[in-house]
Request: fold
Amino acid sequence: MMLEQDQLTIGGKVFNSRLIVGTGKYRSLKEMVECLAKSESEMVTVAIRRLNLLNISRNDNLITAINWKKFWLLPNTAGAKTSEEAIRLAFLGRELSKRIGQKENNFIKLEVISDPKYLFPDPIGTLKAAEFLVKKGFIVLPYTNTDPMLAKHLEDIGCSTIMPLGSPIGSGQGIQSINNIQIIIENSKIPVIVDAGIGSPSEAAFAMELGAGAVLINTAIAQAKTPTVMAKAMNLAVQAGRQAYLAGQMDSYKFAQSSSPLKGSNFLNLTKKQL
Reply:
């Protein structure tokens, strides 16, 4: 169990779990729901573009499959190629939050991606949309490149987190721009959430060891051979990485350091006769 003083706070909302999970790429709705439970996550992201908002009461709908009294909805603007498209999806996402009973939920995961091949976020479109949405009362969680200056601009205009990519979406390549992510974490006064590219629990733990406030994981869980087991593994990895960060890891040294100092011991001075 997380210590109370170590809870994650985003836009005034408090979370015990530092693992955010996605809802795409699962083999079935049943498997997705089981993975959410195993992950012990408290925040779930859903792509607004994937939903038919006119039929969210259907039993086979992603929205009705999830218990929204247990999970906090993080709508996302995935699929938006321009800031204008992202803004429209954000307002639809806020309406959806109200319709599932989360009337105070103004969260939006902002994605503006105009590059269809590498799926890198558009920094200018993201900044433009974020500034508008913050003014409209949204709690904006922007998905970004690992650009420390862009991260600072997003924080300055009022974003509630920074979400730099670990590596390209769905690639499972792990965390590549380690130095830049460290700089973003060091310079940010808001939580930094590593998003995209994490493929294994060890990579999730590493992100937390760097000082990330949380990680967002979808494909690594959904496409695992046994997704429910991977969801549990990611949960444990995030907890372990966070505890390691809080504990303060030892310094590294160029040469070996004896783990059993001999100073003060007379053992080596004993003669063979005495032994």
Summary: The first strand starts at residue 8 and ends at 10. The first helix runs from residue 29 to 39.
